Amino acid sequence: MDQHMGVGAKEEDREEKRTVPEITLRPFTISDVDDFMTWATDDRVMRFSRRPTCTTKDECLTHMKDHIMPHPWCRAICIDDDGRPVGLVSVMPAPGADVHRASIGFDVAYDYWGRGVATAAVKKAASAVFEEWPLLERLDAVAEVNNTASQRVLEKAGFQREAVLKSYLVLRGESKDMIMYSLLSSNSLKVEEMNLLDSENNSRWMPGK
Amino acid sequence: MQTDSAAVPPNHDHRKQEPEITLRPFDLSDVGAFMTWASDPRVTRFQRRGPCTSEEDARRYLADHVLPHPWYRAICVDGRPVGSINAKPGQGEERFKASIAYRLAYQHWGRGIATAALRAAVSSLLEEWPHLDRLEAIAEVENPASQRVLEKAGFLREGLLRKYVMLHGKSRDVVMYSLLAAGPKLR
Question: Can you give the pTM of this predicted structure?
Answer without folding.
Answer: 0.84
